[in-house]
Amino acid sequence: MIRPVLNVNLPGIVRALDQRARMRQSEFASFVAALDDDEPRSGLGAIVTALLPITPHAQTWLAEDHWRLLGLAQARARPGGLAWDLAYLASMPSAPAPDAESATSAPAPASQDDTLLALIQYALNAAIKSGVHRVFARVEEERPELELFGKLGFQRYARESTWALESAAQGLRALDDHAASALLNETPLASRPERDSGGRLAPLSRRAPSLVRSDATVEVYAGMRLRSWRRQDAWSLLRLYDACTPRVTQLAESLTADELIHTRAAGGRAWYLPVIEPASAAFVHESGPLMSGWLRLRQGRGERPHRLTLLAHPDEPAVALSLLRFALRIFAADQPRPIVCSAREYETATINALRAAGFERQGAHALLVRHLAARLAYSRGVPAFNSRNSQVAYDVKGLGTSPTRLNEGGSDTLCQKSSPMISVPSSPRSLRALSRR
Model confidence over 164-175: pLDDT tens digits? Predict the structure, then answer.
């Protein structure tokens, strides 16, 4: 039986129990889909999620059998309510029967695949009832449960890889070695950063204790300036996304501006709560009126690593190198901590910059989407003006080569009420007599 659990962030609790069970070397749950780093994206949501185990914009479902938990799923709505993200999907191993007699009398327990399939179907049905058009899922590439998503109509539209680096100082040394080549020395934006007389990196123009201030304009290299991210840059970020993303992927995602800001720019916030949230900042690089690079930094806390999100125009690979160097300089001012970055397979400029800095590929996830609404061409008749009797004719369905009632062999109702035909005489005398009338 599957039942909904309203406004309870149960997957987070179950995931904590799963980690505790793994520490004791006993499996508690198998997570097919789970968020790597759950980040609040709104002011009120950040406070509520941090203080109480409540997620108002999420729906959670449980699969149980005689009060025994078999699996769970949680979907989170994107801005606009037209798309959901399958945030969590997990199944618990079925317990074996205690003895042979009870095994023969009791029904066989459901397998984990059957539980997952039922949970996904229930989530899709709930999305259809809520008027959702698209459901997204992010699953590890090597998991066999990908076949279950394919049976339910999910399509794979991209692959997202996770790249990791041990420390920021290691990445800066790798970039210095990479910039020594002749090819990169010819590019002005990819030149070596400015250093002082002692050979150390020159300090940034304005630096807060942890991150550069959000209202600062930072000069990274000669001729290149970064400014802080603003909510008004949503349209420019959407154009940068269109330039970096293939057309097939754009049609599969069908992202709106609000959904893009929600997934890439953390809701468009340029601030953070100092006590509840880790420090974060976003920067923009512009080439004239267009945005050629976008960078978001988030410092780690506790055991969590630093995270960066980088998006650069494919025609300007030097911008990706400069933005990455700037991010590593920011993280180098903090205590040594691993750095994690996610990039899709078609973002070649970002991937090349990560490889140049010494990032190593840790894993990959398949990005899936299930379209619940089909696009249909709607044929509608338009009014047209009839010049013969000054009337308006409705249901005219074609112009030019489009099919109409006339070329299909049908009768035209407008021609039935036309005036009778007048025979015109051919002789000149008859024409003069007709003109006198």
Answer: 999 899 999 888
